[in-house]
Amino acid sequence: MFENLSSKLEKAFKTLKGQGTISEINVAETVKEIRRALVDADVNYKIAKDFTNKVKDEALGQNVLTSVSPGQLMTKIVNDELTNLLGGETADIDISGSPAVVLIAGLQGSGKTTFSGKFSKYIKSKGRNPLLVAGDVYRPAAIDQLKVLAEQVGVDVYTEEGNKNPVDIAKNAIKHAKTHQNNVVIIDTAGRLSVDQEMMEEIGNIKKAVSPNEILFVVDSMTGQDAVNTAKAFNDVLDFDGVVLTKLDGDTRGGAALSIKTVVNKPIKFVSNGEKMDALSVFHPDRMANRILGMGDIVSLVEKAQETYDKEEAERINRKIRKNQFNFDDFLKQLDQIKKMGNIKDLMSMIPGMGKAIKDIDISDDAFKGVEAIIRSMTIEEREKPDIIDGSRRKRIAKGSGTSITEVNKLMKQFEDMRKMMKQMNKMKPGRRMPGMPNFGRR
Ligand SMILES: Nc1nc2c(ncn2[C@@H]2O[C@H](COP(=O)(O)OP(=O)(O)OP(=O)(O)O)[C@@H](O)[C@H]2O)c(=O)[nH]1
Ligand SMILES: [Mg+2]
Prior knowledge:
Layout: H1 3-14, H2 24-40, H3 45-61, H4 70-85, E1 100-106, H5 112-125, E2 130-135, H6 140-153, E3 156-158, H7 166-179, E4 184-189, H8 197-210, E5 214-220, H9 224-238, E6 242-246, H10 255-264, E7 268-272, E8 280-282, H11 285-292, H12 298-308, H13 311-322, H14 328-340, H15 344-348, H16 354-357, H17 369-376, H18 380-384, H19 391-401, H20 405-428
Parallel strand pairs: 1-4, 1-5, 2-3, 2-4, 5-6, 6-7
Antiparallel strand pairs: 7-8
Helix pairs in contact: 1-2, 2-3, 3-4, 4-11, 5-6, 7-8, 9-10, 17-19, 19-20
The chain binds guanosine-5'-triphosphate and magnesium ion.
The site of magnesium ion (MG) has 5 residues, from helix 5.
């Protein structure tokens, strides 16, 4: 995410390295580079200029501090200003009332329906009982898509096949929610290829009819400045409450994220970074600024782990490790746990300094595929008692998993080393939890 911007900003700070203090001259140069980095990231020129003017004033004003180097000072200032640019504080979402109504708007293909599914899952995890409403009456497949997502995340869905009036559907859905104990109604709507009058009228009418607590505008971050223009058009008509930025897992340059708040003066509330139902995060401007500056985002990483980690499973595995019984089956389950947390590269980039280190390395979610295939080609007995895996079994496993004997040997060796390490640690700290093994409790 935003790797290019990150490395360009870092380069901009480098020009200050070795300089004793901040001066008009060296600041001017750094600021020029920062501006270029922002414009290259598709941030609107005027926003980039205002941004760097602020940074410059701050830097020259704060130059009395001698304990920090100019590079550090500049990083701090840019971090603060980036946080402001991204919206400052983390924005709340209003789901009070019974039912609360959330209306989802945006262009075609921006990710509204996917977000509706993810959002309903998020709402459910907050202990509420959401109802997903199919307000897209133009594509028959749209209703099915929402039904599938609802089923997948285990929430209720309201559809009216044959009814072509989204305003009526929305009103009926709210009635339905009241009699079915659904306390948050999420209305997915139809998108159009571009902003057009008819769509705006339709969504405006839905708004009037249901008075939503929240109107969330969904926008594809890959569309850069267009995203910002679309946001403006929607906001003029709908006066929405927040923005959902989707597809941050693609190679978006970041311009949309960095410009939208300034242009529409509405906060980004959620970001979505993948097609899976758990690829959704609450947006925190300060954490995003940290990530852009390569400072990582450990807080989000830990939260993510807490959300997805199965505590009982972790304890079960810890017990097995203490008894020196950790086997391939447990290993496979651990891999599943890690994968549940989401995109691996994205996770790793939350560790300070890591984003840059892995920028050009291709770490896909398939990273464990070979290992998994090998383990899945083992019999239950082999997984539980790896010691019985001899040469001929290895040959069979390699064939069955479509890998090679070398790869199987490598995994066996790694697994053995791991078990040895576990054994040693058990000896060192009798009865204690394994250091380095996950121990994520739920809050
Ligand atoms: N990589 C990635 N793909 C996404 C994300 N969000 C949505 N998509 C994909 O984008 C495509 C369009 O998503 P939809 O949710 O159907 O978009 P929509 O806004 O409902 O589209 P219409 O109903 O046609 O207006 C689908 O293939 C989604 O899987 C995301 O955060 N990352
Ligand atoms: Mg849709």
